[in-house]
Amino acid sequence: MAILSLHSHTFFFIILLPVILNLRHHLAVAGGCQYPPVIFNFGDSNSDTGGLAAGLGYAISLPNGRSFFRRSTGRLSDGRLVIDFLCQSLNTSLLNPYLDSLVGSNFQNGANFAIVGSSTLPRYVPFALNIQLMQFLHFKSRALELASTSDPLKGMMISESGFRNALYMIDIGQNDIADSFSKGLSYSRVIKLIPNVISEIKSAIKTLYDEGGRKFWVHNTGPLGCLPQKLSMVKRKVSDKHGCLASYNAAAKLFNEGLDHMCRELRTELREANIVYVDIYAIKYDLIANSTNYGFEKPLMACCGYGGPPYNYNVNITCSNGGSNSCAEGSRFISWDGIHYTETANTIVAMKVLSMQYSTPPTPFHFFCGG
């Protein structure tokens, strides 16, 4: 036991400590954000800070949230998500889910519309991107209505300038691709759907622009083919050199190329907009490909799940459900539950996002500070 403890401390100081110090440096640089911006986020489980639990009463229990919050907050991770670190870098509070009725109408710093399982299509199925956009429009209308009255909640509402100067974050599309594969569609049929997904995201950005939004932060999708869930459920595997599903990753790359192209088009079309495209795929695939450099032992295995190696994922016994188990040290794993990342992995992803090396155009995140 002493040897394991010593190894654990050595691992922390050699691998994790530099990462944490680097992240703190980025947080300190952006900590000069004297006037944090209002933030509105649209997305899926990668950035859902409790929307599914609040909106549908879906139980997301421990061990989710065990490493930082010490309780479940509705996040599908053992701790913070990338969006949490980005919020902290701007010296603002973590985003409350729009559907959470127990936050005391505390949406002064924005709202999170992201919900687990969300996609862009079909448009009118909760909680598709279009539905999230409709929720935002309703929220904005009510906020401005209250702000113009003598209502006691007036001081808790976001002003017209708050909406205009807000940062609009979009992180969606993963489920459109993943769900298409899970329905048994061939690779060629999956990629034919990609332009429609891109079109929905483009339409959402244009709508937000028409509503006065000018600052946009767009994440591409990660390497789907490296998720333990996908690897465990696909019987006939054609893998790349790191053990990931080649077709899933190829589809993700095509989606990302289309998303990048769309952002370039919109920068020309929407002349007053600042649109930053972030290559999350490159960041996450690097974690897989060079996992040992980051101290991760089994990059394709979930910390929390059932079944043991190689993936520790069983669709019938998922993390936090009866019969599942979780690893002792989530910091050794990239994947938390077979789909979502551990806080340690999210820490590294956030650090790289804040480095500007993966952003087009290269933009410091504190560029979005209010003034």
TrEMBL record:
Signal sequence residues: 1-30
Top-level taxon in the UniProt lineage: Eukaryota
Keyword Plastid part of the UniProt annotation: no
InterPro entries to which the protein is assigned, alphabetical: GDSL, SGNH_hydro_sf, SGNH_plant_lipase-like
Record's keyword annotation contains Glycoprotein: yes
Similarity annotation: Belongs to the 'GDSL' lipolytic enzyme family.
The protein, known as: GDSL esterase/lipase
Organism: Cardamine amara subsp. amara
